[in-house]
Input
Amino acid sequence: MKLIRDFVVLLSCLMVGKGMAALLPFAFPGSILGLLLLFFLLSTQLLPLSWIHDGGQLILRHMALLFIPVAVGLLGYTDLLSDGLGLIISSALSGLVLILLVVGRLYQRMLS
Output
């Protein structure tokens, strides 16, 4: 019964986020708004962590299974992916380096 409550709370945040996204005059992912809502509720302690802990742990434990359909779907686009492989790799590496530099710089500023 506890897992059902956990999933209902998580799905409620997702559905409210999707509803908010539908009301916005610009495109924004509803799932991100739902996560921000969940973060707000947890950080203000309006929603106790115990209400979503077990359900969240279950989802995280089986996260790899949730990505299998995405990986299988990508197999249909191997020709397109192989054409842009260099661009994909260079974008990923440059993004990683940029993130590391920004986070490192922010951390240095926080220490001084």
Q: What stands out?
A: The longest helix spans residues 85-111. The radius of gyration is 19 Å.
